[in-house]
Specification:
50% of the residues lie in helices and 6% in strands. It has nine helices and five strands; from the N terminus they run H-E-H-E-E-H-H-E-H-H-E-H-H-H. It comes from Luteimicrobium album.
Length: 216
Amino acid sequence: MARLDPLPEIAEQAAYYGDGFLHNNIFWPMEHTKQMVAFYRQRFEHYGHGRADQAIVGLGGQVFVRKDSQKAWDEFRPYFDNAPVYGHGPSMEDFTRETPLTVGSPQQVIDRYAAFREDVGDYQRQLFLVDHAGLPLKTVLEQIDILAEDIVPVLRAEADKHRPTDVPSDPPSHADLVAKARAAGEATDLHVVGEDRWTGRRAEDDADETADAVTR
């Protein structure tokens, strides 16, 4: 297997428990994203939670959108060039080519993000970062409106149209996983409401122990 980045443990942990895996790929090229998602899917299947293509996956993303593509580039460039994180580094052209950052029209965002399924398979969640690069609140709120009105409904419809019927559209809830574990005889000791289904502990217990350790 090719080398993974320093956080394959997160994908491994999510796969072990049968949880969904959100790859926060906003600074990574698609080659890396494909590698991490493929690793998670492989381990999800290894632990018996279903086929690899049935694993619950989410991706990160960044956009700056205006109705006119050139206006989007002209407006966003000063913010990008001086952004606290990526300012004074790679050019906006390089960054939009090599990472999920997409600057342009709603259709350009739709085309690019709808195509991600070709690289990582059908996935269930798409996170958009819009409050970035020092954008003023008014602009951020405008971005949210464009996403809600022109982009997200189309992406959701495209995902539903292409997703196979035996690939879930929603991740299981904690209650779903507990019920599944109980049905399989893996959680016979879960008699306390709120108790963790794997360790038999509750978050409150850990908090109490931590407090005791601090006061000792």
